Amino acid sequence: MEKPVALLKELSALALIALFFYLFLFVDFHELPFEMPKNFLNVNTIFLSIVLEAIPFILLGVFVSSIIQTFLSEHTIKRLLPKNPIIALLPAALLGAIFPICECAIVLIVRRLIKKGMPLHVGVVFLIGAPILNPIVYASTYYAFQSSQEIVYARMGLAFILSIVIGSIMYLIFKNSEQLKWSRDELIGKLQTSEIAGRSKWKDTFFHASDEFFEMGKYLLFGAFIASLFQTFLNRSVLVELGTNELVSPAIMMAFGFILSLCSEADAFVAASFGNTFSNVSLIAFLVYGPMIDLKNTFMLLAFFKVRFVLVFIAVVTIIVYISVLLYGQFFI
């Protein structure tokens, strides 16, 4: 019974992805014999922009994840990481500053690293640090805020410190207990890895990459669609009116960051457009919180991690970021 249901889910996911590409490549909504509602066209435009922005990074993520699966052994990871769980947080944060990976792809990579033996709390540091600390995000933020360099340094500094703080808190809560969802096939594969020993490693990498792309694709499409609905129908004028309140405005911008689901390589330009409405503290909250948690990657997290872990993770990130940006504004701005 399980196999037909699993097959039906996979076929449904493939059908949705095929429908998306067909509509994108061959259908022009402006040439339809009837007039489409303006809101529908807006949802369609935002949905396509989110998906097209995310797909290159999803592809990057699935290939990095597959290379980790094929070429990196559990023994290597355990040998490279410091034995002390707290000291191990620092190299994870530094590692995030090297790889140009946004939040669209980081869930896949962290999941694979944890399956290979990386401690959960170290994976959390990489999960929230890498989408902000990488050099591409630094360059885009620097360019977007050339006249407000303190925002650039605040974003990078807070992201580095908070990734370590949040990783420590998650370690205290979960103590590296198993929080991943394992499918039946994955559990069997975990016990029977010797069966694929004779196959080419690069061929195996491409098999893993194609499987993960279609598996992740359905969650990307669903998350992008929900985010596009929020962006279209959310009454932003009410939220902008609250932008002058020092306590409320950072929370409003964090909510914007969550709902808009922007790629971290591009969100700085959107944040800069709010410069005349919201304070610098609120902009920093947007730039730090959005890449850590947004609507799109929440669906990805729920797909691969246990629900309790995801809810606690979101709560911890939200509270820590909010308190931190308020303290930063109090003492440094």
TrEMBL record:
Keyword Membrane: yes
InterPro entries for the chain: DUF318 (IPR005524), UPF0718 (IPR052923)
Stretches that traverse the bilayer: 12-29, 41-68, 88-110, 122-145, 151-174, 219-235, 247-263, 270-289, 309-329
Membrane topology of this protein: Multi-pass membrane protein
Similarity section: Belongs to the UPF0718 family.
Keywords: Cell membrane, Membrane, Transmembrane, Transmembrane helix
Cellular compartments annotated: Cell membrane
Protein name: Permease
Superkingdom field: Bacteria
Pfam family, one: ArsP_1
Organism field: Metabacillus fastidiosus
